[in-house]
Amino acid sequence: MVEDLVSLADVALLAQVGRPVVTNWRMRRAQRDPFPEPVGREGGQEFFSCADVVAWLTRTGLGRNPRAAEDAVAFQFSGRRVLTDAGLFHGLSALLCLEALTGPLPGDPDDLLDLADERDPDDEFLRREVEALGDDLGRLSAYASLLVRGAMDAAEPFDALLRSRRTPDAPGSGPVAAAFADLVLDVAMSAADEAGFEAPVLCLPRARDLVLLANLPDWLEERPHATVALFGEASDREARLARRWLATHGVRVSTLEAGDGTGLPNEAVLVVRLDDDDREADLVWLNELTLQCSASMRAVVVGAASALTGPLRVVRRGRPPASGVPLTPAGEERRQALQSGFTRAIVRLPAGLLPTNPALRTAIWVLGPAHDPAETYCADVSAPFTQNPSALVDDIAAALVGRPERRGHAAPGRFVRQAELVMADGDLVSPHLDARMKATRGLPRLLDDLVPAVSRPVSNGWALTVVPNESPGLVQRITLGEAVVLGHVTLIRGASLSDSDLVPTPDVGVLRDPRELRSRDHLAGLTFRALGAHEHLRVTEPGDLIFATRGTPIVLLDDRGGLVVAAPSRVLRCHIPTEAQVRAHAEGRADEPKPQRLVPALMAAELALASGQSHDWRRWPITLLPPGAIREASEAAAALAERQRLLEDALGATHDLMSTLASALGAGLCSVTVERKSA
User: Fold this and answer.
1) How far, in Å, CA of 669 to CA of 386, rounded?
2) pLDDT digits (tens, 9 = 90+) for 76-97
3) How far apart are CA 592 and CA 341, in angstroms?
4) Full-model pTM
5) Which H, E and C letters describe 411-454, residue by residue?
6) CA-based, 20 to 30 A from 555: which of 327, 340, 508, 615?
7) Which class would CATH give 178-311+327-441?
8) Residue-wise pLDDT tens digits, 458-467
9) 45-55 per-position pLDDT tens digit
């Protein structure tokens, strides 16, 4: 493929705008100077001439990058190549790391080499990657600088680079869902808290497991003394890449003496992912780890649920012997690991946490010293959890402390005595309907938070004043169908997607019914890769209205955007002139744009009423506002929407308080009185 071809994502980067903006540019074919046509296609993705795009940006004045023509040379190393070429991938990550450490990169390649040598004199993480770029160094550094200018800092494009990596040397274990990584790190930090570690050291015997610490930068403000220790020689590409990522995010890093869990530093929290390529070897490693555990360390081990929780019996034909079916060698290793008494929690997690294998269920073991009596919290969590599975983290954290300090709340598991767990030859975490943690800590804290939240009045923070005009005009009402024809509203049909296109933990949620908008964080959807393969798909923007007429008609406002709407639902998008259109008209380069006549939130309220009277959406009436009233109408709508959100939050807190109060009263943790206040 010719090197000066760019994708729509590349165009967004070059113009320093969001990806949806470029899609809108391309969709406006009726304008005087339409977006250039594609000149090639690869793997279902369209590509455009970089020269044509630069010329178009220059003519129209669109975008936010006045240096677009100068930066275009960097696209000889656009995303397609750096994601698949190992040398370019590691070189770009080194340059992004270098920019994070030093600031803007120099343009001269010799100065770049000197800078890399200065920052990494012992060649521990980036110098050789920069040197290996050779003649490509100058252009790739320009591309790195362009990526950083289009982001908040160098860490953002570094993270995106890792997520999209497709190089031949990429680890076979693959990525993990964000919720999975958050859970593992939260559990590791909870284990450190339980142990009283003031400066926990997160130890990674395998550098590829860095994906489990993706959320670590968010912890640094709360845990500034936390560090990471890695095992890996200077020649280990994954270890060097991990060190670059940590340096880019400002995380202090040290080196582990061995990769088998021995020689750990003080206050160590070991984090390991078993990939199940060799189950017996993995469980041998786990058994040896439990033998080395001490009171001054903790460990979080994740892997396939079938290996860590499932039955590991020998497969035999015919009637089983009187003594029972023996365990496999892997099963014997797991049993010996349980005999150590260091297993504090075993939890089987829901499917959908591994994007490369969404059907596979995973499990987590938490290792730490036992209390008296020695018990292990065993749970089977089948329901999917979202970005912050804090309830499960609290359950596991409670399992790490002694009985008197455990929280008092219903939990999806039970405590199993060590002797019983060691003798189990079947599933270690079989679901138990009547499981309950019997404890006292936690519920009083929840009540302390919820009671004030429910008791205090909902405050506006503003006052809405309506002043009648002396000479009112006539209300201009049209139907929704007429508004679409006149261009005041754009109708976007729902995408045609099958269930096989969707994954449980997506990058972009897919909404089929507007009612699902209330649980948007739990939607199945598409990965960014799948979204990029469907050029026709459009993502909702804040202010879009999602509606459906099958059954009971419904219209809801999407105030956040970022969803793909699938049939039979559709999207209504109010016409709002862009800043570029207004600027082009002011500079005499374009006609005056059509004025905005609708406010999405007010229109949603009108349509919600009209939809209950007719199934024909084209006949639903709406009110066109005078252009001069749009600003004050938008401000009023925003204030009313804020009021509605506060009321909904208060109602949700009331439901939470009622549920928590039932548990607290049932456990005898408190008494309650009601004091009625006079009006």
Assistant:
1) 30
2) 555 567 777 889 899 999 999 9
3) 76
4) 0.59
5) CCEEEEEHHHHHHCCCCCCCCCCCCCECCCECHHHHHHHHHHHH
6) 508
7) alpha beta
8) 766 677 788 8
9) 788 888 899 89
